[in-house]
């Protein structure tokens, strides 16, 4: 560890001037705006990691509000689904769709929740939406096939 | 400034803490902290050339256009904006003639040594490295800056050799083709400038490197064919995305919109429940997300850089031109 420090110490601090022209100030302001904007994402991402580790809903909710991207709501939706809080889970997934409307896996998650709620018509609808985006998915095709069979058997 | 100087060694000493994988990658990862520490430092040190300042203005005006392409992802835009600004600032540093840049270069070298040690330990122990900007390619890019500097060090000093060994080890163990290409160009230019008086030797060095590269690239292509095929599919889909959305799909929206353009072959190759986060090429991802305005920015940018590079070749200024190699080490 001493080697690099020794290297840095060489000629350290030579000819330092401290001028701050106006155009640099503009650049600095841009950077500050960027930093301000990214703080939400950075802190939100930290809460996501913590929330997933501790399986803490409040932390994940905080993170989803701060990150403002689909991942935060997705992770929250998965946690709610695992805890069998299906309605909350669905609203988290719908919120996630606002940020990523073409994510087929979000539609399939909503479809899965409708299966759990025994609303097979709506489940088929969401799996079909997922299949529209990814027509080659065998999982979605199989799910729709089985859901149709269950619906037919139940009458 | 005197006060600022006092704190610099402490900042440098803090670095091992930043690199410790005990911290969460997301929050205290070097990708944020390094730049946050470097930012005030860098801005102070920039000395604009006249042309560069005009170019900066154009760059920021056009950048603001594609930041507001889609207001929904405003935080993500800021995040990307930050990255682009910092990338740009680091480029300006490369061209800066300000002597303060020396300190930043040393700071970069110091960081690259830490990365190289971390990378080497990760390689030998089998544990994954946290990385520098979340990507081993970026860390290798920083190492390339250091390599360039180290080649100009006084090799009578023993620690220069240790630095060279560490950083070379990191770069060699990196899997990125772009990084290997970067190293090759650095060495070609190094030999080229060493024998600039001997025309025949200079010519034969280039032929030698070209011949070697044919074998190396061929071997690399055959051993990793699936990866190339996958990329080809993604790039073709990206082209379709660009043609359908000439003014861009919005920043950070690649992963989402790509689902609509995903080809059957690529999907079957990757399997179910997989997502493609980017085009596996930074240039293509940025152009698809930003559209024609971004394409124009990048074209102007590269033409500008190419012209400076040509001037440097004419002036036999090979030390500076090495820095250009870094620009092409995209992911």
Notes on the protein architecture:
The complex is a heterodimer of chains A (155) and B (331). Chain A has 2 domains: 25-85, no CATH class; 102-155, Serine Threonine Protein Phosphatase 5, Tetratricopeptide repeat, CATH 1.25.40. Chain A is 79% helix and 0% strand. The termini of chain A are far apart. Chain A is built from 8 helices and no strands. In chain A, helix 3 runs antiparallel to helix 4 (70-82). Residues 1-21 of chain A have low confidence and may be disordered. With 155 residues, chain A is mainly α. Chain A is elongated, with a radius of gyration of 25 Å. Chain B contains 16 helices and no strands. Chain B is mainly α. Residues 4-57, 62-88, 127-135 and 325-331 of chain B have low confidence and may be disordered. In chain B, 77% of the residues lie in helices and 0% in strands. Classes of the chains: A mainly alpha (155), B mainly alpha (331).
Kindly summarize this structure in a few lines.
With 155 residues, chain A is mainly α. Chain A has helices at 2-9, 22-54, 57-67, 70-82, 86-99, 104-116, 120-133, 138-154.
Keywords for this entry:
heterodimer; A: 155 residues; mainly alpha; Serine Threonine Protein Phosphatase 5, Tetratricopeptide repeat; 2 domains; disordered N terminus; B: 331 residues; 16 helices
Helix % of chain A is over 70%
Radius of gyration of chain A: 25 Å
Domains of chain A, number: 2
Largest sheet, strands/sense/barrel of chain B: none
Q: How many DSSP H or I helices of chain A?
A: 8
Helix content range of chain B: over 70%
Mean pLDDT of chain A: 78
Radius of gyration of chain B: 21 Å
CA-CA gap between termini of chain A: 74 Å
Form type of chain A = elongated
Approximate shape of chain B: elongated
Class from secondary-structure proportions of chain B: mainly alpha
H-E string of chain B: HHHHHHHHHHHHHHHH
Termini gap of chain B: 37 Å
Unreliable runs of chain B, pLDDT <50, ≥5 residues? 4-57, 62-88, 127-135, 325-331
**Biggest sheet of chain A: strands, sense, closure?**
none
What is the count of helical runs of chain B?
16
Low-confidence stretches of chain A: 1-21
